[in-house]
Amino acid sequence: MERIEQIKQFLKESPNDNFLIHALALEYVKAGDDVQAQQCFEQNLDHSPGYIATYYHLGKLQERVGKTEQAIATYQKGMEQAKAANDQHAFSELRSVYEELTY
Q1: Are 20 and 47 in contact (CB under 8 A)?
Q2: Average pLDDT, the chain
Q3: What is the mean pLDDT of residues 51-71?
Q4: Are residues 98 and 75 in contact, defined by beta-carbon separation less than 8 angstroms?
Q5: By residue range, what is the domain housing residue 13?
Q6: Residue 1 clears pLDDT 80, i.e. is over it
Q7: Cα 82 to Cα 5, 13, 29, distances in angstroms
Q8: 28 within 8 A of 37, measured Cβ to Cβ
Q9: Which of 27, 28, 35, 97 is most exposed, with minimal Cβ within 10 Å?
Q10: Residue 7 has what pLDDT?
Q11: Between vectors from CA 33 to CA 64 and to CA 55, what angle results, nearest 5°?
Q12: Do residues 32 and 8 touch, judged by C-beta distance below 8 A?
C-alpha cells in the first residue's frame, strides 16, 4: 500500500501523467484490486489512447476476470495504436495475446 500512496502523491502534482497512472494501475493489480486497476487503465486510455502499454495490461486483466470479448477488443485497439505509432514490438506482443484468445 505504501507504493500506491506514494504514486497518488506524485499524481497530485501531475494528475495526467500517463506513466504514473499506469504505474498506479499495476500496483493495484499487485494488491489484487482489479476494480481500481481497471479504472486506472481505462482513465489512461481515455486521456491518452496512444499509451500503448496500457492495452496489454488492461487486456490481461480482462482475461483474468473472464471478460474475454472485452480483452479481444482491447488487444485490437492496442494493435491499431501500435501500428499507427509504428511500434512493431508492441504490435507483435498484442497480436500474440490476441491470437491466443481468438485461434
Answers
A1: no
A2: 96
A3: 97
A4: yes
A5: 2-102
A6: no
A7: 31, 29, 23
A8: yes
A9: 35
A10: 97
A11: 50
A12: no
Q: For the chain, how many structural domains are there in total?
A: 1
Quickly tell me which residue has 502499454 as its cell.
53
Residue given cell 499487485 in the structure block: 30
Of 48, 31, 45, nearest in space to 75 by CA: 45
pTM for this prediction: 0.93
Name residue 73's amino acid.
A
80 residue type, one letter: E
* Contact in structure between 82 and 43 (CB atoms under 8 Å): no
Q: Which residue has the cell 494493435?
A: 79
CATH number (domain holding residue 42): 1.25.40.10
- Enter the C-alpha cell of residue 25: 494501475
